[in-house]
Structures are given as structure tokens and as C-alpha cells.
Amino acid sequence: MSAAIVRMSSVSKYFGSQRVLADLDWQIAPGQVVGLLGRNGAGKSTLLECMLGLREADGGAVTLFGEDVAGLSDDARGRIGYVPQRTDLFDWLTPVQMFDYFRAMYPRWNTGKVDGLLSRWDFGPELRNKPIKRLSGGEQQKLAIIRALAHEPELLILDEPVSALDPVGRRAFLRELVDQVIERGTTVVFSTHILSDLERVAFDLAFLKDGRIALQGQTDALLEGARRVVVPAATLPGAPLAGEVRRRQEGAMTSVIVQAQGDDVARLAREPGVRVEPLTLEDLFIEVTQ
Ligand SMILES: Nc1ncnc2c1ncn2[C@@H]1O[C@H](COP(=O)(O)OP(=O)(O)OP(=O)(O)O)[C@@H](O)[C@H]1O
Fold first, then answer.
1. Structure confidence at residue 288 (pLDDT)
2. Which range of residues forms the domain containing residue 31?
3. 1, pLDDT greater than 60
4. Which end of the chain is flanked by fewer CB atoms within 10 Å, N or C?
5. Atom of ligand 1 lying closest to residue 16 CA
6. Ligand 1 pocket by Cβ (under 6 Å)
């Protein structure tokens, strides 16, 4: 397997006494497209900011393209695109002025791509020449996405990029992501709460919980293998089932979530009163992150 593009080892981050990242290990391979999931406040933005060196971790190591993130070269920086959760555009400029400014900074800036996206995403002459601070939240989010894509990055980090977009805008963005960005082999890390979007674009999912990546795998495989096994408490063995994620007592029954069905689940399924149910992505999110 080729060397990881992103490598995080034992990364910790505290805000005061609150531990947000707890010795987190994570690696992302070239061309991987990963959806990052977690509850509100789980630390997704913090994780992405530490990954990019925008926030200093309190412990551990982060490398991007094999370089320590604290001393990242201009070349490596030029290969990264980032859409933050809150847009950080120069809002006193107009879109045309902002893109002129960034074009001068990035050798690989693709003006044709910017113009094409502006046209397809409904930026007529009037919007292109209006100060960004007077644009709507969704319009500003579209500009942040265009800015992140314009230099055709090899690593694209998106922190809830579609939260302000309407369904038409979201679909247009996802089409661009799937048809252009992912098609080109770009490595993508994408946090969102819109699970249906992830099912469309993310081949891999990673769940952040208690400051660590609690579960990661291919979306299809996770959904195919994950089951809720509801068992009379007396029938359930005390030892964890193979691939067990969590178990919870519900009256006389115990509900066990497994990532993948092993022989023990097949055996239990034959016992009277046992139910084995498939999980949706939403079920899996709730079960893994609760
Ligand atoms: N600058 C800061 N100072 C103090 N606490 C912070 C700061 N930034 C984030 N936190 C805290 O760290 C935790 C993680 O926040 P973060 O924004 O990374 O979560 P998130 O998973 O991105 O959440 P959401 O899904 O709501 O966007 C939260 O409890 C938050 O209150």
C-alpha cells in the first residue's frame, strides 16, 4: 500500500481541562474518500484543524505528504484544499477580486474551472461583483468551496461544506465532488451530519467518539455487516460477541450491536426469542456515537 497522505499518531488536544482528542491515531491513504462522523461537539472541527496544523495539538505527531505539519513546505501547502465550517473569506472583497488575489498565490490555479463553477452555481455578473459580506450564507459557502477546488488539490478537507446549501446547491456540489474531484484521484476527508450525502460519496466512514476514531470501514461493508442482535438477557454469553460495538440492557432483553456477523451471531439467531436486525447508516451513527 502506498504511504499515507495523512498520518496522525497519538494526537491529543485539550481546551482547558476538556480533552477533545485523546491519543488519536488515524491514517488516510492516497485516493481515499472518508466521511468523518460524530455528534455535535465530538471534536470533528478540532481534529481537522489539528490535521492541517491550523491548531496546535498538545501531544502526538501529524504528517501530511510525509512532512511534519508544523513545518509544512509551500509545495505541500499548495497541494491542500480546505473548506472550513465557518467561511473565512476576505469579505470586504468581491468574488472577482478575491479569486484574483488567490490566483496569484497558487501556481496551479485553474481560472477556467473557477469560471465554470461560478456559472454553473448561479453567480451572474451582479453577484460576482458584490462585496462578499453582502452575499447570503449559502453563496459564501459556494465561494469557499470554489476557492478550495480551484488549484486542484491532491488533499481536500471539507468541514460540513454543505450545511448552508439548499438541496439544488447540495446536489450540484456532490456531482462536482464525485464527477471531477474524486474521479481525479483526490484524497478527500468530509465531515457532515447529512448521512444521505455520505452514502452517495464516501467509500469509507470514520466515527469520532471520546476523542478517538471508534470505528472505521468501507461504507458498504459497514452497512452490510452491522446488525442489532436482540437477545433474552439470560441467553446472552457474558463475553463480547465477535465485532461487538456496544450492548445495552432493555428490560428482559439485551440489545447488542456488532460490526460484522460472526459464527456466534449465527448460533444465537437459532435460539428462541432472538432477533437479528440490519442497521441503517443512521442507526449505526446513533449506536456507535452514543
Ligand atoms: N476555541 C475553543 N475553546 C474552548 N473550547 C472549544 C474551542 N473550540 C472547540 N471547543 C470545544 O471542543 C469540543 C469540540 O468542538 P468541535 O467544534 O471540534 O466539535 P464538532 O464535532 O466539530 O462539532 P459540530 O458537529 O457541532 O460542528 C466542543 O465541546 C467545543 O465546545
1. 86
2. 6-218
3. no
4. N
5. 4
6. 15, 20, 38, 40-46, 85
